[in-house]
Amino acid sequence: MKERVEIINGDITRQEVDAIVNAANRSLLGGGGVDGAIHRVAGPELLEETRKIGGCPTGEARVSRGYRLPARWVIHAVGPVWKGGNYSEDRLLASCYANSLKAAVEIGAKTVAFPSISTGAYRFPLERAARIALEETKRFLEGDTFIRKVIFVCFSQKALEIYKRVFEEVFSS
Ligand code: APR
Protein backbone atom coordinates (compact mmCIF):
# COMPACT_ATOMS: atom_id res chain seq x y z
CA MET A 1 0.00 0.00 0.00
CA LYS A 2 2.78 2.42 0.91
CA GLU A 3 4.31 1.98 -2.55
CA ARG A 4 1.14 3.48 -4.07
CA VAL A 5 1.73 6.84 -2.34
CA GLU A 6 4.52 9.34 -2.94
CA ILE A 7 5.25 12.66 -1.23
CA ILE A 8 7.34 15.24 -3.07
CA ASN A 9 8.24 18.92 -2.91
CA GLY A 10 7.43 20.57 -6.23
CA ASP A 11 5.05 22.36 -8.54
CA ILE A 12 1.86 20.46 -9.32
CA THR A 13 1.60 22.05 -12.79
CA ARG A 14 4.75 20.18 -13.83
CA GLN A 15 3.67 16.71 -12.73
CA GLU A 16 3.56 14.18 -15.56
CA VAL A 17 0.60 12.23 -14.22
CA ASP A 18 -2.78 11.29 -15.68
CA ALA A 19 -4.63 13.79 -13.47
CA ILE A 20 -3.74 16.68 -11.19
CA VAL A 21 -6.16 17.96 -8.58
CA ASN A 22 -6.84 21.69 -8.39
CA ALA A 23 -7.67 23.48 -5.12
CA ALA A 24 -10.48 25.42 -6.75
CA ASN A 25 -13.30 27.62 -5.49
CA ARG A 26 -17.01 27.02 -6.01
CA SER A 27 -17.18 29.18 -9.14
CA LEU A 28 -14.46 27.12 -10.91
CA LEU A 29 -13.50 30.38 -12.64
CA GLY A 30 -9.88 30.38 -11.43
CA GLY A 31 -8.17 32.32 -8.67
CA GLY A 32 -4.77 32.62 -7.05
CA GLY A 33 -2.52 29.99 -5.50
CA VAL A 34 -2.50 26.59 -7.12
CA ASP A 35 -5.73 27.43 -8.99
CA GLY A 36 -4.00 30.41 -10.60
CA ALA A 37 -0.92 28.38 -11.46
CA ILE A 38 -2.95 25.60 -13.07
CA HIS A 39 -4.98 28.01 -15.19
CA ARG A 40 -1.84 29.91 -16.20
CA VAL A 41 -0.08 26.77 -17.45
CA ALA A 42 -3.18 25.08 -18.92
CA GLY A 43 -4.07 28.16 -20.95
CA PRO A 44 -7.40 29.88 -21.72
CA GLU A 45 -9.22 26.77 -22.94
CA LEU A 46 -9.29 25.56 -19.33
CA LEU A 47 -11.41 28.51 -18.21
CA GLU A 48 -13.64 28.10 -21.27
CA GLU A 49 -14.35 24.53 -20.17
CA THR A 50 -14.73 25.20 -16.44
CA ARG A 51 -17.06 28.10 -17.17
CA LYS A 52 -19.41 25.62 -18.85
CA ILE A 53 -19.36 23.30 -15.83
CA GLY A 54 -21.15 26.04 -13.91
CA GLY A 55 -19.61 25.69 -10.48
CA CYS A 56 -19.04 22.99 -7.89
CA PRO A 57 -20.21 22.69 -4.27
CA THR A 58 -17.66 22.54 -1.44
CA GLY A 59 -16.46 18.98 -0.85
CA GLU A 60 -17.13 17.87 -4.41
CA ALA A 61 -14.99 17.62 -7.55
CA ARG A 62 -15.48 18.23 -11.28
CA VAL A 63 -13.28 17.07 -14.17
CA SER A 64 -11.83 18.99 -17.10
CA ARG A 65 -9.12 18.37 -19.66
CA GLY A 66 -5.59 19.54 -18.90
CA TYR A 67 -4.90 21.36 -22.22
CA ARG A 68 -1.29 22.68 -22.10
CA LEU A 69 -0.53 20.96 -18.78
CA PRO A 70 1.48 17.72 -18.91
CA ALA A 71 -1.44 16.08 -17.09
CA ARG A 72 -4.28 14.89 -19.30
CA TRP A 73 -6.99 15.78 -16.78
CA VAL A 74 -7.59 18.36 -14.06
CA ILE A 75 -9.86 17.34 -11.21
CA HIS A 76 -11.18 20.56 -9.65
CA ALA A 77 -11.90 19.98 -5.97
CA VAL A 78 -13.47 22.68 -3.79
CA GLY A 79 -12.11 22.57 -0.26
CA PRO A 80 -13.72 24.12 2.82
CA VAL A 81 -12.67 27.47 4.24
CA TRP A 82 -11.34 26.91 7.77
CA LYS A 83 -13.78 28.49 10.27
CA GLY A 84 -12.42 27.05 13.49
CA GLY A 85 -13.36 23.41 13.03
CA ASN A 86 -17.02 23.33 13.99
CA TYR A 87 -18.51 23.75 10.53
CA SER A 88 -17.89 20.27 9.09
CA GLU A 89 -14.53 21.39 7.68
CA ASP A 90 -12.86 18.02 8.38
CA ARG A 91 -15.67 16.06 6.71
CA LEU A 92 -15.76 18.39 3.69
CA LEU A 93 -11.99 18.20 3.22
CA ALA A 94 -12.07 14.41 3.46
CA SER A 95 -14.81 14.30 0.83
CA CYS A 96 -12.64 16.41 -1.51
CA TYR A 97 -10.06 13.60 -1.48
CA ALA A 98 -12.61 10.78 -1.73
CA ASN A 99 -14.52 12.49 -4.56
CA SER A 100 -11.31 13.35 -6.45
CA LEU A 101 -10.06 9.74 -6.27
CA LYS A 102 -13.51 8.47 -7.32
CA ALA A 103 -13.43 10.88 -10.29
CA ALA A 104 -9.92 9.67 -11.19
CA VAL A 105 -11.14 6.06 -11.40
CA GLU A 106 -14.13 7.15 -13.48
CA ILE A 107 -11.92 8.89 -16.08
CA GLY A 108 -9.34 6.12 -16.05
CA ALA A 109 -6.56 8.12 -14.40
CA LYS A 110 -4.09 5.69 -12.82
CA THR A 111 -1.71 8.34 -11.45
CA VAL A 112 -3.07 11.34 -9.54
CA ALA A 113 -1.28 14.32 -7.97
CA PHE A 114 -2.81 16.36 -5.12
CA PRO A 115 -1.86 19.76 -3.74
CA SER A 116 -2.53 20.44 -0.07
CA ILE A 117 -6.16 21.45 -0.52
CA SER A 118 -7.51 24.31 1.66
CA THR A 119 -4.18 24.96 3.44
CA GLY A 120 -3.42 28.25 1.67
CA ALA A 121 -5.99 30.99 1.20
CA TYR A 122 -8.58 28.80 2.95
CA ARG A 123 -6.37 28.70 6.07
CA PHE A 124 -7.00 25.04 7.02
CA PRO A 125 -4.28 24.00 9.52
CA LEU A 126 -1.60 22.17 7.54
CA GLU A 127 -0.92 19.14 9.76
CA ARG A 128 -4.64 18.55 10.34
CA ALA A 129 -5.25 18.74 6.59
CA ALA A 130 -2.34 16.41 5.84
CA ARG A 131 -3.72 13.82 8.24
CA ILE A 132 -7.18 14.01 6.66
CA ALA A 133 -5.69 13.78 3.16
CA LEU A 134 -3.54 10.75 3.99
CA GLU A 135 -6.18 8.91 6.06
CA GLU A 136 -8.83 9.40 3.37
CA THR A 137 -6.43 8.31 0.62
CA LYS A 138 -5.46 5.20 2.60
CA ARG A 139 -9.12 4.35 3.13
CA PHE A 140 -9.81 4.77 -0.61
CA LEU A 141 -6.80 2.73 -1.76
CA GLU A 142 -7.71 -0.14 0.59
CA GLY A 143 -10.86 -0.59 -1.47
CA ASP A 144 -9.40 0.12 -4.90
CA THR A 145 -7.04 -1.75 -7.20
CA PHE A 146 -7.20 0.65 -10.18
CA ILE A 147 -5.19 3.64 -9.02
CA ARG A 148 -1.45 2.97 -9.27
CA LYS A 149 0.02 6.07 -7.66
CA VAL A 150 -1.18 9.02 -5.58
CA ILE A 151 1.40 11.82 -5.32
CA PHE A 152 1.13 14.58 -2.71
CA VAL A 153 2.90 17.64 -4.12
CA CYS A 154 4.06 19.88 -1.28
CA PHE A 155 5.00 23.45 -2.09
CA SER A 156 7.47 24.03 0.73
CA GLN A 157 10.07 22.10 2.72
CA LYS A 158 7.95 22.63 5.82
CA ALA A 159 4.90 21.06 4.18
CA LEU A 160 7.04 18.19 2.91
CA GLU A 161 8.32 17.40 6.40
CA ILE A 162 4.81 17.48 7.86
CA TYR A 163 3.38 15.26 5.10
CA LYS A 164 6.24 12.75 5.43
CA ARG A 165 5.84 12.52 9.21
CA VAL A 166 2.07 12.12 9.04
CA PHE A 167 2.46 9.60 6.20
CA GLU A 168 4.62 7.36 8.44
CA GLU A 169 2.02 7.57 11.22
CA VAL A 170 -0.97 6.89 8.98
CA PHE A 171 0.56 4.21 6.74
CA SER A 172 2.44 2.21 9.33
CA SER A 173 -0.55 1.64 11.62
N1 APR B 1 1.97 23.42 -6.77
C1 APR B 1 1.65 22.76 -5.62
N2 APR B 1 1.12 23.35 -4.54
C2 APR B 1 0.91 24.68 -4.62
C3 APR B 1 1.20 25.45 -5.77
C4 APR B 1 1.76 24.76 -6.87
N3 APR B 1 2.07 25.38 -8.02
N4 APR B 1 0.86 26.76 -5.53
C5 APR B 1 0.38 26.80 -4.27
N5 APR B 1 0.42 25.56 -3.72
C6 APR B 1 0.01 25.14 -2.37
C7 APR B 1 -0.02 26.20 -1.29
O1 APR B 1 1.26 26.35 -0.73
C8 APR B 1 -1.00 25.58 -0.31
O2 APR B 1 -0.31 24.67 0.54
O3 APR B 1 -1.35 24.71 -2.48
C9 APR B 1 -1.94 24.75 -1.19
C10 APR B 1 -3.34 25.31 -1.34
O4 APR B 1 -3.29 26.72 -1.31
P1 APR B 1 -4.26 27.62 -2.24
O5 APR B 1 -3.82 27.51 -3.64
O6 APR B 1 -4.32 28.96 -1.61
O7 APR B 1 -5.67 26.89 -2.14
P2 APR B 1 -6.77 26.87 -0.97
O8 APR B 1 -6.18 27.14 0.37
O9 APR B 1 -7.52 25.60 -1.19
O10 APR B 1 -7.69 28.13 -1.33
C11 APR B 1 -8.47 28.04 -2.49
O11 APR B 1 -7.66 30.11 -3.32
O12 APR B 1 -6.57 30.25 -5.31
C12 APR B 1 -7.78 30.44 -4.71
O13 APR B 1 -9.39 30.04 -6.44
C13 APR B 1 -8.82 29.51 -5.26
O14 APR B 1 -10.60 30.59 -4.08
C14 APR B 1 -9.78 29.44 -4.10
C15 APR B 1 -8.84 29.44 -2.90
What's this entry about, in short?
By secondary structure, the protein is of the alpha/beta class.
Describe the overall structure.
With 173 residues, the protein is α/β, with parallel strands linked by helices. Helix content is 42%, strand content 18%. The chain contains 5 helices and 6 strands. The protein has a 6-stranded mixed sheet with strand order 1-6-5-2-4-3, with helices on both faces. Helix 4 (126-142) packs across helix 5. It is globular and about 45 Å long. The relative contact order is 0.21. The site of adenosine-5-diphosphoribose has 25 residues, from strand 2 and helix 1.
First-residue to last-residue Cα separation: 12 Å
**H/E series, N to C?**
EEHHEEHEHEH
Small molecules bound: adenosine-5-diphosphoribose
Structure classification: alpha/beta
How would you summarize the topology of this molecule?
Blueprint: E1 5-9, E2 19-24, H1 33-42, H2 44-53, E3 61-65, E4 73-78, H3 89-107, E5 111-114, H4 126-142, E6 149-154, H5 157-172
Parallel strand pairs: 1-6, 2-4, 2-5, 5-6
Antiparallel strand pairs: 3-4
Helix pairs in contact: 3-4, 4-5
The structure holds adenosine-5-diphosphoribose (APR).
Adenosine-5-diphosphoribose binds at residues 11-13, 23-25, 31-37, 79, 115-122, 153, 155, 159.
